[in-house]
Structure formats: C-alpha cells, structure tokens
Amino acid sequence: MSKLILFGKPVFEFVSEKRSTPIITGNLADPTQALIQALGNNAVGSINVNVNTAITLSAVWRAINVISSTLAGLPLKHYKISDGGRENLRTSAASRLLKKPNEMMTGYMFRETLTALAVGYGNGYAYIKHDASGIPVELIPIHPSECLPIKFQNKIYYKILIDGSYQTVTSENVIHIPGLSFNGLVGYGVVTIARESLGGALATQKFGNKFYENGANIGGVLETPGELSDSAYKRLKESWNEKHHGVENTGSTAILEGGTKFTKIGIAPEEAQFLQTRQFQVTEVARWFGVPPHMLFDLERSTNNNIEQQAMEFVTYTLLPWANRWEEELSRKLVKSNAQDSEYIEHEFNGLLRGDSKSRAEYYKGLFGVASITPNQIAELENLPKDPLNGDTHYVQAAYAPVDKIAAFYEGKAPKDSKDTNDIKDKNDEAQ
Predict the structure, then answer these.
(1) Residue 395 confidence (pLDDT)
(2) Which of the residues 146, 189, 202, 385 has an alpha carbon 20 to 30 A from that of 424?
(3) How far apart are CA 95 and CA 233, in angstroms?
(4) Band of pLDDT at residue 229, cut at 50, 70 and 90
C-alpha cells in the first residue's frame, strides 16, 4: 500500500481490492479537490487559481453571493402531511434548528455559508450534534478542507475536525450539500472545473492593474550607443523607474543622455481587445455559475422585457436544484426515520415566482374562485393580517359563499327561506 501525505493528512491511498479498512477515493489521474485546493492550479502562467483568488474577480464574488444569499433568504419550513393538506410544524426540533442552528449563527447566515462553500468548493458540510436522546440540537459548519468523505462497504463516513481533533463519524451526523458529482461522494467545485477560464480572467485583471501601475504605458527598451558598466546600468535603470514608473509619474517628461534612446514595444490594450476580453469573461462566469448576466450587473443584452423572464429562469434552473439538494438532505437527516413518509422540509418559492401585483391578483383570484385557497392562505403569502373569523373558509366563485352551505342548499337540506340562503343571497348581491 502507498499513501500520498499532504500536511500530515492522507489525501490518497492506493490499495489492492481486498482490504478491511476504509478506502479514500481518488487517484492521480483524477485528483480529488483536497489535493487541488491545497496545491492550487497554475492555469495561466504563474496565476494560482483557487477559491480565494477566484473571488477577487467581481463577477465570481457576485455569482456566489447572489446564489447563496437568495437561497438563504427563502423561508424553509418543516411540514407534516395531514388529511386537511399539510401542517407547518413550527415548534419541531428541525424547525428550531433551521431558525437557530447554533449559538453563533442565524438560520440565514448558516444556509448562506454552506451554500457559498458548496458553490465555490463543491461541498458544504455541517456536523449534527445530538443530545442524549438522539434529537439534533446543533448544526456546526465544517470547512471543506477540514472534512474528508470516506466510502467503506457501501457506506459513507466523514473524517472531520471537531474541537481540534479529527474524528470519523457516520453520514447520519453530517449535513452534506454537494455540487455536481461524478462519483456520488463529493461534488466538483465550479472554481476547480473552470480554472482555465478563471485563470484567464485573473491574468487579464492582473494585466490591467500592472498597466495602470506602470503609468498606463506599455513597456519599452532603452538603447545606448555603447556597453554600460554594471554601476551605470544600475543607475540608469533606477533613475528611469524612479521618474517614469507608477501612476503618479504619468505624463512626465523623459530626459535621456549619452545618446540613449527609448523604443516602445508591446501591444496596445485596444489591439489586445482588453475591454472586450473582460466583458466576455463576465459572460463566461455567468455561464459557469448559471447566473443571468444582468444579475452580475452586465446589462448589455438585457431589456425591460426579458429581465423578468431571466429572473424566473434563474429560479427554475439555478436556485431550484440547490434547493432540492438542501431539502432532501435536511429531510433525511433532521426528520426522524419513522416519520419521513409523512414529514418533510421544503423551501417557500412563492415570493420569488409571484411576479408583479397584477399577476399575483389574477393568480390568487383563480385559485380562490375554485375553492383551492382561503383568504388566510393568501394573506400569509402576501404578509398581510389574517381574518380570525372567516379567513380559513373556502369559497366558490359563483357567489363567494362557503362551500358547505352551497352543498346544503342544492341537496335540499336548507329551506329556501332559511337564514343560510338569505346570507348567500346577500353575499351574491354584494358581489354584484
């Protein structure tokens, strides 16, 4: 057996098929992200591409931020299926954890952090701390560099750093939000896969900084008629850089002596399509992260007519997959196994998909008219006060009367001059 040890921790183990101890998946042909993140990726020359360098690109920072913060801002609730539909279990252990996962973080901050780690690094981890009776009482985020998934005998274990030491725990004790995975064990981080594209963007950004740092001038050559001594060469170089290097020396006049000539070399930024390249890289980042360009503040191809549609596509094709990962993982880790057939955890997306006020009014009117939604349900979706008297009653479109009273009328159970019938008539007259 051979091992690859990195900073005192095994990254790979190459073993035979017969083995009685856990196997850490990975090989040198397909290195795990632990190795890549530790060593970095020199995608373009000396540009080291990892999450820490990639987020210095404004488009990458914004892409990770808009995905993680938007998803964290959605209501996340624990439901139980009942005969009357579903019940929001507001006081359950899972609901309490979703609001206050630990003493240091709010529910929003916790979910934003784990989603950002999952988007950037490919995996978001949290240790589930249970009490003596097995009820989850705390969720503690674990950085991907401090967690190593291990597959052994068709089960998954996690070697994680807890209280200063590494411990191996079963999968039931870890919340794991992965990105796209090809082995079902760990997700691939966008930064790792996109390192060539992001390396080019970082190189372009570095070039722009150097361009302005050098006084917005392309480098050149100082030619002298004769050979310079070491001291003369050093003096000429230091003198030139002192007078003509840096933004503060932009536009200064060069005084050359002894027949020295300055010859400009290099490619002008406009010839290198510097601005076009930077613009294209924003589009590339948007494509890698699945974020509409206008959400990265690139409005070149956006109009008032298509921005709303792009926002809807962002919810459907970017946020929803991440929400599904969260919901399935939380439902199987925070809900008791014997209750998972009737209980689940789900995001509330209505706030993002509801459109403008006119569209929402038409939507609610249609549901209300066929007795599919109650006034209080509409009020809850719109953050309005509820009606404590008749707010939970279903109505039909014809006269907006309670369904049970309409049924009683047509079945002949209520006389035509009854108070119920008069109430229906009065409501009908009011509706007219």
Answers:
(1) 80
(2) 385
(3) 72
(4) confident
- Extract the tokens encoding 343: 């209980």
Check residue 130 and give its pLDDT.
92
Going 105 to 110 to 334 to 146, the CA torsion angle's sign is negative
Q: Which three-class secondary structure state does DSSP give residue 139?
A: strand
Please, are residues 76 and 100 in contact by the beta-carbon 8 Å criterion?
no
Q: What is the pLDDT of residue 399?
A: 56
Give the amino acid at 271.
E
Other C-beta atoms within 10 Å of 73: how many? 13
pLDDT band at 89 (very low <50, low <70, confident <90, very high): very high
Amino acid 60: pLDDT: 87
Average pLDDT, stretch 124-149?
92
DSSP per position, 5-47: EETTEEEEEE--S--SS-B---BTTB--HHHHHHH--EEETTE
Residue type at 52 in one-letter notation: N
Q: Phi-psi bin for 167: left (phi > 0), alpha (psi -120 to 50), beta?
A: beta
Confidence of residue 29 (pLDDT cuts 50, 70, 90): very low
Tell me: pLDDT of 71 over 90: yes
Which residue type does 361 have?
A: A
CB 125 within 8 A of CB 144: yes
Exposure string (b/e) for 18-56, b if CB count within 10 Å is 16 or more? eeeebebbbeeeeebbbebbeeebebbeebbbbbebbbe
> What counts of helices (H) and strands (E) characterise the chain?
16, 15
Torsion (CA) 402, 362, 324, 335 in degrees, nearest 10: -20
The answer to whether the beta carbons of residues 138 and 175 sit under 8 Å apart is: no
Cβ contact 124:149 at 8 Å: no
Distance CA 147, CA 185 (A): 12
Tokens of 240: 């030139």
CB 292 within 8 A of CB 313: yes
Contact 44, 202 (CB under 8 A): yes
Q: What value does the mean pLDDT of the chain take? A: 74
